[in-house]
Amino acid sequence: MERFGTKVVLITGGGSGIGRAAALRLASEGARLALVDISAEGLAVTAEEIEKASPGTAVLTVVADVSAEADVARYVAETVAAYGCIDGFFNNAGIEGTQNLIQDTATDGFDRVMSINLRGVFLGLKHVLAVMKEQGSGSVVNTASVGGIRGTGLQSPYAASKHGVVGLTRNAGVEYGQYGVSVNAIAPGAVLTPMVQEYLRQLNPEDPEQAAREFLSDNPMKRFATLGEVTHLIAFLLSGEAAFINAAVLTIDGGQSAKY
Length: 260
Ligand SMILES: NC(=O)c1ccc[n+]([C@@H]2O[C@H](COP(=O)([O-])OP(=O)(O)OC[C@H]3O[C@@H](n4cnc5c(N)ncnc54)[C@H](O)[C@@H]3O)[C@@H](O)[C@H]2O)c1
Prior knowledge:
Layout: E1 8-12, H1 17-28, E2 32-37, H2 40-53, E3 59-63, H3 69-83, E4 88-91, H4 107-135, E5 138-143, H5 156-176, E6 181-188, H6 194-203, H7 208-217, H8 227-238, E7 249-252, H9 256-259
Parallel strand pairs: 1-2, 1-4, 2-3, 4-5, 5-6, 6-7
The structure holds nicotinamide-adenine-dinucleotide.
Nicotinamide-adenine-dinucleotide binds next to helix 1 and helix 6.
């Protein structure tokens, strides 16, 4: 039986990388989807790939900026108007920002990362949890990072935002557990998405592959996570099987965060 048959899952950052892979995975398990992204083009590609892989899946796409509250209120309202409920929420959109010492980090760059990665996750929680509390059910997965639980260096805006996502997750799980709603976070190590390719280019513009080798030498398993491994965890946390996991931060990083 399909784990997500008739369930409605809302995904931010659905136009690329982990969000797109999660959408494809959940569609393959029968979910009805609402996909949010700032990139209309990215959303169109995801919708096309879903139609190819899981024909007939219900897919609503909403172009929205997760850092703008009016946009967040709109993507939630459009999802509820289309489907009548929100069973799962993958609160995932984010950006990397630049790699610099703190003294060389542009303040508006810091603000931009915080606004998308932390304010965006907060706004998503604010508007979706109101719906889930009313329903008396729901599962939320926020995307944190190894950078949200360890200091990895040269990425203070990203680290600050992802540590904030961990704090929001724990607090939201404690607040909303009593309403039948779970809120968890995943903390992935590196997955080779466009975001990580850009990160490696910033570390070594002449030879990003060398940057990748150096980066991986620090990982106990010496490799990137696959999208399949990460989406497996997301699907588990959004399914009823994980109902008693709440306010937790689950690493999926080959052991990287245990090592520092
Ligand atoms: N790839 C990794 O190794 C890795 C590791 C840990 C955590 N993460 C986190 O996973 C999440 C997804 O990253 P990814 O690797 O899939 O990156 P990605 O760049 O492939 O996808 C991110 C998506 O978010 C969208 N987005 C960016 N700003 C937005 C905004 N203001 N409003 C709406 N959408 C916006 C982008 O258009 C893009 O489609 C991020 O939160 C990232 O920090 C990624």
